[in-house]
UniProtKB/TrEMBL annotation:
Regions of compositional bias (Polar residues) in chain numbering: 39-55
Signal peptide residue numbers: 1-28
Lipoprotein as UniProt keyword: yes
Species classification: Bacteria, Bacillati, Actinomycetota, Actinomycetes, Kitasatosporales
Protein name: Lipoprotein
Species of origin: Streptomyces coeruleofuscus
Record keywords: Lipoprotein, Signal
Region listing for Disordered, in residue ranges: 29-59, 255-274
């Protein structure tokens, strides 16, 4: 990763009353349950026995776009935004530094936490896609949901899923400082439907002040591997819990990707989930 003195993080919440936004704090180089462990293959299990994907259609840009979820696939209340808007949700910015003193093995652990925050900003939670990649954004009140489908045929998304699986332990709680203001970041594991070949879910919470105003930003994050392709979902804002929306996007989005891989056209409307 290119070293920078400061990193900026994508904003996933709307303006506070004071006119500023709280977003997950990015890091500098000073930073030297029962969740997804349910049915199916988790990242830690798959690390030892990687499944060989069945022959599938190459994920071209058009196919990746077809595999994206629609308004019909996410909970009522979400409204799709223009692609250019979703790609520029980092217009309002926040700068921060990770407090290395929070970690027992400072450089190694801080680097993992920095990577998490940087990857949320760069939309590359599983690393830079080696093939086609498409994303779509949705809004609901003060919350936003970003959904991505990408191909990793020349890399290994499983490595990144294994990395994600360790974050609740390595980055369970740490401090980010910006302009004298401190914020506490917490990372915990969340549950996901047992879909795909492997999956990991996280909740990232940032509590503190911005511009002198107290606020809490909650991001629910999920990644699912299907062969050498994967979907990632990030949803949240100042309103808090968006885990239900993430679970639904994961469930229906994985099915859409599998349909596309099999050369099928995904159903225009989701089936009954009950």
């Amino acid at each position: 990763m290119t070293r920078r003195p400061y990193r900026l993080l994508r904003v996933l919440s709307s303006a506070l009353a004071a006119g500023t936004l709280l977003t997950t704090a990015a890091c500098s180089d000073d930073g030297g349950t029962d969740g997804s462990r349910v049915s199916g293959v988790t990242a830690s299990q798959a690390a030892g026995q990687r499944q060989t994907p069945s022959p599938t259609a190459t994920l071209t840009t058009d196919r990746a776009r077809t595999a994206l979820v629609t308004e019909a696939d996410v909970e009522d209340g979400w409204t799709q935004v223009k692609d250019t808007e979703a790609e520029n949700w980092h217009d309002s910015l926040l700068i921060g530094r990770v407090d290395v003193s929070d970690f027992l093995t400072a450089k190694a652990q801080a680097a993992d936490c920095r990577r998490l925050l940087d990857s949320l900003f760069d939309d590359d939670l599983l690393g830079r896609p080696s093939g086609a990649s498409e994303l779509r954004g949705f809004e609901q009140g003060d919350s936003r949901l970003l959904y991505q489908v990408a191909s990793y045929e020349r890399t290994d998304p499983q490595d990144s899923l294994n990395w994600m699986a360790n974050l609740p332990e390595k980055c369970d709680q740490f401090t980010v400082t910006d302009g004298g203001e401190q914020r506490t970041v917490q990372v915990v594991e969340t549950s996901l439907p047992g879909v795909g070949d492997a999956r990991e879910g996280l909740r990232v919470t940032v509590k503190g002040t911005t511009g002198g105003t107290e606020a809490t930003l909650t991001l629910d994050v999920a990644a699912v591997r299907v062969g050498d392709d994967a979907i990632t979902v990030t949803a949240g804002g100042l309103d808090g819990d968006e885990n239900d929306s993430v679970e639904q996007a994961v469930r229906l989005g994985t099915q859409r990707l599998e349909d596309v891989q099999a050369g099928k056209t995904p159903a225009p409307f989701p089936g009954d989930l009950e």
